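Field reference: sequence -> structure
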Amino acid sequence: MGIDAFVWLHALATRHAASVVLVGDFTSVVADFIHRAEWLLRCGMTPTFVFDGARLPAKDRTAESRAIRRATEFAKAQAGSSDAEPCEAHYRAAIKIEWGMVQMVIAALRTRGFQYVVAPYEADSQLVHLCNTGCIDAVISVDSDLVVLGAKKVYFRVNCYTGDAKVLQQKDLGSADLSTVEDVSLRGLVHFHGLAA
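Structure field:
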């Protein structure tokens, strides 16, 4: 199972937003990440974690606008940091996944014998490549569009407490040449699927 590691990092960092943003303390994020990784093992999966690598030059503008938004949210959090006005939502919006956090998670994964890959650029392309070369059978991500990009099976909306997930499979896209079809209904492509408990 290939895991889009940055999806997990973002989700887990929001749980500890104030300590991540204010102090740069990633300890709780790393512990939660490893806890989830071990949960996958208990479900009978062999995970390979794929981390984003270098930023694509084509995304420079997007990165700049995100940096401005994070700075604005951080300022709002600082301005509303009294007990009278909670600011946790602003801290969550100010989170940036720092390379130091990634290094700590990779070190913890390595110590416990988990497989990981740092993609040349974004994890999506690397996950599709790993799927197509038979290194992984499926992907866990929030990006269900990975099926269109070439991943054979994508589990998304994974609930790590119940094991429930949605699954999209490439084979369900059909054999029609989609470039000639004007309207495509995605109804019926999404199936509820329980992961092994």
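Note: The domain at 2-194 is CATH 3.40.50.1010 (Rossmann fold).
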